[in-house]
Specification:
eight-stranded parallel sheet, 8 helices, two-stranded antiparallel ribbon, globular, single chain, 19% strand, alpha/beta
């Protein structure tokens, strides 16, 4: 199985109530050897309501990781990561965040259009084709300029549409999706295989098998796998399915990060150690 979960959240994130100690315990129980704690750091257009640089929050995230590194030493590697949403809206603030903290791993992600979270849209009442193009165009901006290691859940928008009984498929905009993938490959950035969709209405990973195949066709090799767990019981969830998927597509390596330096390791079961 895959034993590195590169996308977990704890109660420092506004959408989780689980102490990091419990997340770590869940990882140990699931046979995970390494987690990357990637609590949310969202950037907004409206800086009056949402200050772009919040040192107190970042300090708390870093302290939680330090405490759990000590507590779980010898059982679990606890990496300090961050999930930076909407990097392109406040690039100077994003650069300060990354510069001033000793992150092992940085995720680039996109959750909001015009400061409105994707889950708040009424997809039944919208021009979903136009919304999808807007979503992908902003992802392309992030791919082109963000100082991150991997792009998270590329086709996330399908999750919220599916929750309202609406189908949105990023594959319908193949040219634009491939441009995002080409940009990631050109810049040496990776792609996350996020297993949370397997637990939701869409019943597939983010991104889909098709998009992962396109990534490989465009020369992409840098992959991480993350459960996007916000609860103890979800750490490592869906990893057997993820391993089967990426192996079937011809990926043999998973990327590891330490102090933003990447190493490639053979996936266990494919001749790795």
């Amino acid at each position: 199985m895959l034993r590195e979960d590169y996308h977990v959240h704890c109660l420092n994130s506004p959408d989780s109530k689980e102490p990091l100690e419990m997340i770590c315990q869940g990882a140990v129980e699931a046979g995970i050897r390494e987690i990357m704690v990637t609590d949310h750091y969202e950037l907004f257009k409206d800086t009056d309501k949402h200050p772009p640089y919040r040192r107190e929050y970042l300090d708390k995230c870093a302290q939680s990781v330090r405490e759990c590194r000590e507590k779980f030493a010898g059982k679990l590697r606890v990496g300090l990561g961050i999930e930076l949403g909407q990097w392109h809206l406040q690039p100077e603030a994003a650069a300060l965040v990354v510069k001033n903290y000793p992150f092992d791993y940085v995720i680039g992600s996109f959750h909001k259009i015009d400061d409105r979270d994707l889950k708040l849209f009424r997809y039944q009442d919208m021009d979903c084709k136009a919304l999808l193009r807007r979503y992908l165009e902003e992802l392309l901006l992030i791919a082109a300029q963000g100082d991150f290691d991997c792009m998270a859940h590329l086709d996330l928008i399908k999750r919220y549409a599916a929750g309202q009984g609406v189908t949105i498929r990023a594959e319908d905009e193949e040219e634009l999706v491939r441009e995002i993938l080409k940009t990631l490959v050109k810049r040496g950035k990776g792609l996350e295989v996020n297993t949370s969709g397997l637990r939701q209405e869409v019943k597939e990973t983010f991104p889909s098998e098709t998009i992962l195949r396109w990534y490989r066709e465009e020369g992409g090799t840098v992959l991480t796998v993350g459960s996007d767990a916000h609860r103890k019981q979800d750490v490592g969830a869906g990893f057997a399915e993820a391993k089967a998927l990426i192996s079937a597509l011809g990926f043999s390596y998973i990327s590891h990060f330490c102090q933003r330096e990447m190493t490639m390791k053979k996936i266990e079961g494919d001749g790795g150690d």
